Amino acid sequence: MSPRRLAARFLIALVLLAVSLPALATAPAPAPEPLPPAALRLWEGGGPAGLREPPPPLGPFNYVREFDQMVAFLAAWQLLDPDSSDYGGMIEAEAGYLGGVIQTDNTLEAIWCWSRYEEFSGRATYRPSIAAAWVYCTRYPAWQEEGAAGADYYRVHNCAWGLTAALRYEAVTGDASYAAYADTCADYIVAHPLNVWDGAIWDQRLDAFCKGWAAGNLYLYGEAVGDPSLMAAAVAQGADVQDWIDAAPVVNMAAEYWAMSSGTAVWGVCNSVFRDDPAAGQVWLAANAPLMDTWQNFYSVPGYDWDVAWNVAYLNAHFAVWDATGDDAYRANGVFLTDALLSYDTDDDGGIISSTIDPVTEDMSWVSCYLLKFGVDRLLGAPADHDAGVLRFAGMDDGQQFPAGRPLAIRAVATNYGLGDEGAVEVRLSGDAGEATLYADLPFAALDTLTFLAAWTPPAEGLYTFTAATFLPGDAEPANDPATVTIAVGEGTAAPAGGPAALAPRLTRNPFREATALRFALPAPGRVRLDILDVRGRRVRALGAADLPAGTHALAWDGRDEAGRPVPAGLYLYRLVTADGARTGKVLRLR
């Protein structure tokens, strides 16, 4: 046993004596019920019918800003009434049936998020929030939260959060006061292995998900504190989850329930069994990772249809598979999912809904924590001290069409990607609308929308390109300084007499597995070219370069490159070029 754990055993009594230990926190959530037979049949048949469609994109995103917004959202929903027994706890939701729920897992999640914020930003803004959160978590410890005797899935889930929260907090602050708390969480997971084999496989998916989450965190904790016995216990539990997947891999690599999906199980196996034996992981993932889901639309699971949370779990697994295999297609899936889920924050408050049928006034603190830890933090990188850039043009997307003669506002969104506060950052516009210079004050994590031209009228129909770029002394990342957009003016605004109305390019299936097609319409005869590009802009496949008559057309892509080889799953771009301009868009190939 490591010296740290010996010390923790001594401290645990002091921690527990300092607080009262009621059995339940305020307003516990109801326990999940088994899926009804109809839902089981639905998934045994391959899942819900219809296209899987992520939300309209709101990005690109400045992940520093997203992180800053999300931790502020969490702070707004922490209960800080000193007279309440729930002081320091995280409220689960802005409103709705979880609006009154305060529980330990949500609070431990917030501790991780606030601690990580301090780690990368150097700002101790949320130290008081963290201190209050620990008061709640010691009053309602993870291993004593809700659950009937023998129903340990929730306690085990919470204890896994206790491990990662305590580790991050101590790493950032140097305060080992909660080592005993984490040590007890680890001991609980070891002593209460969830049983994934009682009854039918489907009935045990919740325990399998939670056991995977626990196994991965237990292994990482044992590694951090130097305790091989914990790592060995984690491998044993992770192997049980791996066996559960192997019993029905097509189903068990793409299942959803409660706040989790099979992504949680895959993440756990990657961070226990395959962290211990990377070579075995390469073999198993090559065979099974292609079965893992990438995006799951909403479908009804009575009381627990939390499709946003399911997809957060999938993105966590895709990043884990990328870690284990180095296959960039899985990283691309993780990026795609992160950006898609951030696009649900349509009220721009840092909160994320748990289900796509919920209004944005019912954002959930726990889903926000999940997305922040599993996705946003992954893409944050190591922010530089000084780094500004133009994020996008406001109200203009690349390839967007505008009517001829309509005055257009030329506006660019400047942002601060760095850690310092920046004043009077120079932003220059160039291109077909002329040149102009404005200045933006960009404190930490800020956005500023600059209006270069309030009402610019294009002189004629055609394509127009604009570039806006920041100029900041000492800027560490020149590559993100500029943003460029090309718009089409007059394209498709009126069809020829007797001809079809112009249609915006539309993929028949997006995302797709085997094949998709781009449907579009030409108002007049003309030459058309359609290329598929990778995310770096390199051509993967030329699908068409021909003269076509006026009317509707469809150009198909079978998911193969120029050499006829199937391309890896991941995010690709299409670029449709006609006589009147170019249109680009995203297409996702699923495994």
List keywords for this structure.
591 residues, alpha+beta, Immunoglobulin-like, five-stranded mixed beta sheet, four-stranded antiparallel beta sheet, 16 helices
**Uncertain residue segments:** 9-31, 33-51, 493-503
Round the mean pLDDT to the nearest integer and report it.
86
Cα end-to-end separation: 43 Å
Rg result: 26 Å
For the largest beta-sheet, the strand count, sense and barrel status come to: 5 strands, mixed
SS class: alpha+beta
What's the tally of helices?
A: 16
Task: Describe the fold and architecture.
By secondary structure, the protein is of the alpha+beta class. It has 4 domains: 1-25 and 64-192; 31-60 and 197-343, no CATH class; 388-489, Immunoglobulins (Immunoglobulin-like, Sandwich); 506-589, Immunoglobulin-like, CATH 2.60.40. The protein has 16 helices and 19 strands. It has helices at 3-17, 37-44, 63-76, 104-121, 127-139, 153-173, 179-191, 205-225, 228-247, 249-252, 262-270, 273-276, 278-288, 307-325, 328-342, 365-380; strands at residues 90-91, 102-103, 256-257, 260-261, 388-393, 401-402, 408-416, 422-431, 436-442, 447-456, 462-471, 482-489, 506-507, 516-522, 526-533, 539-548, 551-557, 570-578, 581-589. The chain has a 5-stranded mixed sheet, with no helix packed on it. The chain has a 4-stranded antiparallel sheet with strand order 16-15-18-19. Helix 6 runs antiparallel to helix 7, helix 9 packs across helix 11 and helix 11 runs parallel beside helix 14 (307-325). The longest helix has 21 residues, at 153-173. Residues 9-31, 33-51 and 493-503 have low confidence and may be disordered.
